[in-house]
Amino acid sequence: MREAAVEVQDVVVRYGGVVAVDGVSLTVPRGSILALLGNNGAGKTSLLQVCEGFRGPDAGSARVLGLDPVADHDELMPRLGIMLQSGGVYPWATAGEILRLFASFAANPLDTDMLLDRLGLRKFAKTTFRRLSGGEQQRLSLALALVGRPELVFLDEPTAGMDVGARQTTWELVENLRADGVSVLLTTHLLDEAESLADHVVIMDGGVVAATGTPAELTAAAGIDLLRVRADAGLAVADLAARVCAKVTESSPGEYEIAGALDTAAIAAALGWFAAEGAQVTAVDTRRRTLEDVYLALTAGAAR
């Protein structure tokens, strides 16, 4: 059984008296995508710097592709692709020059023309980096991370500033990486991106892990937050609201919405109330909480 792509155990990162990462553990299995989520200041960047070998942890340990990212840094770097949020290239060089330069560093690079075409950058190949839009710079940064055929890719806000089409193309590329056996650790503030792409999600808050699991596990644990029932109009719903401890409204004649943290017992009680009232129920619909709902609930204190 192969080692995990990334194994972080009880990592602590301090800056003077400030603890940025406080005992965090996570694992990225080979050929999977892990989304690392958290508000600004949650400790994501510091943790990535440890995984990328740009600083050692103050406590705990990290193994990346079976290697120590600091002690084995020179051996590890050719096997990694790192996409930064900004910077890292000479602003007066053209997109094509930059990509060919990075390709020259790799033993077996991808075809640069293919990457330019795939990421919609062909017409910008002779445009200097500083004259590219923010989304175009992001696409070039992604190409630079991929051109060396990495085994593991770190993507920091990969679709920031991209339009809808470029964002969809990037999602497809990331999914193709996984299909090819490449492991991906990405940070993003786009919760739908994490929910769509990630096999596993780690939510950080204040330097610690607030929640971890697959997107489906996290949203299932959060439960149902809205029950819609179509029934006879004009029912007196005050008793129902008290019974299920939720807000009940008749949004339009015969259309009832029951909003709150609804478990199976609450949903059964609500439907039982309609039956006891002798109301003819003709439709029932529920809405499960999204990953965004889970994230906001866990990080509300940090956001404030």
Automatic annotation (TrEMBL):
Its membrane topology: Peripheral membrane protein
Keywords: Antibiotic resistance, ATP-binding, Cell membrane, Membrane, Nucleotide-binding, Translocase, Transport
GO MF term list: ATP binding; ATP hydrolysis activity
GO biological process: response to antibiotic
SMART domains in the cross-refs: AAA
InterPro entries in the record: AAA+_ATPase, ABC_transporter-like_ATP-bd, ABC_transporter-like_CS, ABC_transporter_ATP-binding, P-loop_NTPase
Location(s) in or outside the cell: Cell membrane
Main location as per UniProt: membrane
Domain ABC transporter: 6-231
Cellular component aspect of the GO annotation: plasma membrane
Top-rank lineage group of the source organism: Bacteria
Stored PANTHER family: ABC TRANSPORTER ATP-BINDING PROTEIN
UniProt-recorded name of the protein: ABC-2 type transport system ATP-binding protein
Native source organism of the sequence: Actinoplanes digitatis
